[in-house]
Design goal:
The protein has 111 residues and is mostly helical. It folds into 2 domains: 1-46; 52-106, no CATH class. It is 46% helix and 11% strand. A 3-stranded antiparallel beta sheet has the order 2-1-3. The longest helix has 38 residues, at 8-45. The protein is rod-shaped and about 85 Å long.
């Protein structure tokens, strides 16, 4: 091995640096493995996507803004899952249906 220094002090320095680096790599591997275990556990305990979603207004006492099919990418952050009957009732009360996921069609209100 011609790329290594020929004298003992520099070889010891290189050895110390390599041991330190190996320790950092092993710590990083353990950290990534912990995160992967946490990610997998999160997927296992995640609640199922609701079938129907009401997007809420800023005012909690106001009528919902929109009715969505569960998992609709257009639903905002202020949403709550509801049963089929609540989604039907909201549509009957005049809450607009999402124009992307069309819950009114999926619920059989419109064909």
């Amino acid at each position: 091995m011609n790329d290594l220094p020929p004298d003992l002090p520099r070889l010891r320095t290189l050895e110390t640096w390599l041991v330190y680096s190996l320790g950092r790599v092993r710590e990083r591997i353990a950290e990534v493995e912990r995160r992967e275990v946490e990610r997998q556990r999160g997927e296992q305990v995640r609640p199922p996507t609701p079938d129907w979603v009401l997007e809420q207004a800023l005012n909690r006492d106001a009528l919902p803004v929109t009715v969505h099919v569960g998992g609709c990418h257009m639903a905002g952050k202020r949403q709550r899952g509801v049963p089929r009957e609540a989604a039907l009732r909201a549509l009957a009360e005049g809450v607009p249906a999402c124009s992307h996921c069309r819950p009114d069609t999926a619920l059989g209100v419109l064909d």
